[in-house]
Amino acid sequence: MAADLQAKYTKLAQEYSKLRAQNQVLKKGVVDEQASSTSLKDQVKQREQSLRKVEQEMDSLTFRNQQLAKRVELLQEELAANEAKGKKSKNKGDSPSQQGLQQTQSVFDEDLQKKIQENERLHIQFYEADEQYRQQEAQLKVRLEELERDHEQHQAVVDGLTSKYMDTIERLQSDKATLEVKSQTLERETKECRVRTEECQQQLRKCQSELNRQVKQSSSVIQEKVPFNDTKFSDYNSLNVPPHNRRHQLKARDVAGQALGFVQDLVGALLNFHSYTEQRVHIYPLDSSIEPISPLNQKFSQYLHENAAYVRPLEEGLVQLYQSITEDTVTVLETVGKLKDFADHFTSYTHFLQKILPYQLKSLEEECRAPLCTSSLTSKNQELQSDMKRITSVFDKLHSYIILLALPSVRQDAMPQSSSSAVFTQLAACLHSLHDAVKEMSKHYSRKASLEQQLPTVTQKLRTTNECLLASLGVLTNSTGKIATFFSNNLDFFTSSTGYGPRGGAGALNPLQAESMLGNKKKASDYMHTIRKPRPESVPYREALLNRRVLTSSTESRQGLTQQVVASQEKIARLEQEKEHWLLEAQLGRVRLEKESQRIQDLETQLSSALGGGGSPASALSLGPGSPALTSLDDGELEERGVGKEAILSTGLVGMLTTTPTNEEVGDEESREQLIKTHYMARVGELSTHLQASDSKAVNFHAECRALAKRLAIAEKSRETLTEEVKLANQNITSLQDELATTKRSYKEQLSMMSDHLCSMNETLSKQREEIDILKLGSKGNSKLLKKGR
């Protein structure tokens, strides 16, 4: 590790030196470029000054040309005048002096013509030189601007590269510091590891010597005292306690727990699917003219209403199977008796699916015969029919495989152990086909629901039912997919060998015999544990006598207290009974008081009605509430006189008063029974509310347990995802290191390219300088020619 760190450090130092040298080269190139740019700026200024001089000379030349042109015009005018005079003199006669004058005039004319031609040629050359100079000047300006832009770009690139290199240098320096710290810590750790390895080697030598001594001693003891080897023969070896793999058993329990969670989700999805299918059967007719529900659909709905009786036992059977798998049991097909119960429950559910299949198909056919059913809906219904047939057949296959797996627990020789792996493989394939079938049915049903929503007579209730049904199908698809993937992932565990076997690994062992052996082993371990318990220390005789006295006194006092407690409890129970009795009596008295007040009110109303009918005050007073004729008639006398439901006749001074008893005049016994009945009904209601509250608490606890189990599963998944993220982070680190190496290589290449570019720029600058010198020479030659022309 230290050598690797040293090598990395040397590599980093070499790279740092290379980068430093490259940085110096770049700095030098930048300085040269700046110097060349300043020189170019100076040359541009000089060219501008020379251009101004040339323009001034041009102005002076134009002024001189104008003067020469005026002079030529004057000379031409004089020449014309002289010619006119010569013609006049010819008439008179030519003299020798005039002839000489004409000759000299012709010579001047020729010289003047030559000067004029030379002046025109000089003008043309000057114009061409000026145009060429202007073009070259524009080209040079354009090239100068391009060079300045390139210079700015190169300067920006150089600045960026310098900043990047400074950042990389700082990062490399920090990495160097961290690597130095790590190297120091690793050196310390290596020293500690060396010390530990030396200590471990010494301990290993001691252990090897001790083990060799014990082996020699045990081999001598075995040779001297063991009469025979019971693992040599299979008959004797089968009587030994077999070794048991507890990890295999814990794995079996873990797998059963995961399967239980997935099956619980599947059971919930199946219950929702059947219940929403029942609701759809009730509300599907879209036309009010059609009968709301046919007898066939009514029978189908009745069968669907019974789905919980077939679906719930699947979860209960798997819960019992999970509870039967413990750490100290042998979990194989021969010993798992609860698998047969689960297989029976699955058989009943498969029969239920086969029973409702024709009703499902007929119900879809009735939907196709509806007047509002389109051709697309008919095709979707036909696809759903094929999906339902496929799902029922897949469940039938699953039922056959589960029955095969449950047979060895009933009869051991029903299926050999070599065939169980093939059954598990076929079961996994069947679960995948179930997931595919449910997925196809969900897809077809979603398309059907979208088509039904486009119908004009669709109701909101049907839309919500379709949405709920699609949601339940989605949950069913997810649960079947989870079960299929879970079974495929654990297929190696299902088909692996059992976690027990005879000593020496030779031969096979009966599973029931192995389970009984494990039970005997547990009993033997419990017996040895009880034997090895330390005995309590003995108590001195006097202390024991004192403790006995205290114990007897305490037992007597405890017996007295228990008797007092029993007496107080009996008294409390008796007082409670009396309390209940007096409460009932108070209620009876309250009822009697209400009845008497009601009877008095009735009598007062009868009296007021009699007085209003024309009775005399004497008869009214005789029939008042304080009248002896009425007060003397109690309930017993009325019953003796037959007043139960007949009329009461009272005679007075004026006429006869007829009173009819009301229904409220009931006996005390009936009211007492009614009150007792209401009291106990109230008590029963309270107890039922308490029972419901306890049931709700139990349901909440069960839901919390399931939520905790799901959270545990989620935590496991998050742990797996975190490990995957750590792996991805390591991969990203390696990729970033590769990118760093590639960027270093690219920087090197860029530096080489920049150096080449700087060389080419220097060459172009030298060429430009040569061109500028040539132009300067050309301009000087033109100026000399112009001076000569003047």
* Main β-sheet description: 2 strands, antiparallel
**Helix percentage:** over 70%
Number of strands: 2
Element string (H = helix, E = strand): HHHHHHHHHHHHHHHHEEH
| Largest sheet, spatial ordering of strands | 1-2
Structural key phrases:
790 residues, mainly alpha, two-stranded antiparallel sheet, 17 helices, 2 strands, 84% helix, 1% strand, Protein phosphatase 1 regulatory subunit 21, PPP1R21_N, PPP1R21_C, RNA-binding, PPP1R21_six_helix
Describe what you observe in this structure.
InterPro entries: PPP1R21, PPP1R21_C, PPP1R21_N, PPP1R21_six_helix. The protein has helices at residues 2-92, 96-225, 234-237, 246-283, 295-305, 308-324, 338-369, 375-410, 417-453, 460-489, 491-495, 511-531, 541-612, 617-622, 628-631, 635-640, 668-789; strands at residues 648-651, 656-659. By secondary structure, the chain is mainly alpha-helical. It has a two-stranded antiparallel sheet. Helix 1 (2-92) runs antiparallel to helix 2, helix 1 (2-92) crosses helix 17 and helix 7 runs antiparallel to helix 8 (375-410). The radius of gyration is 60 Å and the shape is elongated. The chain starts with a helix and ends with a helix.
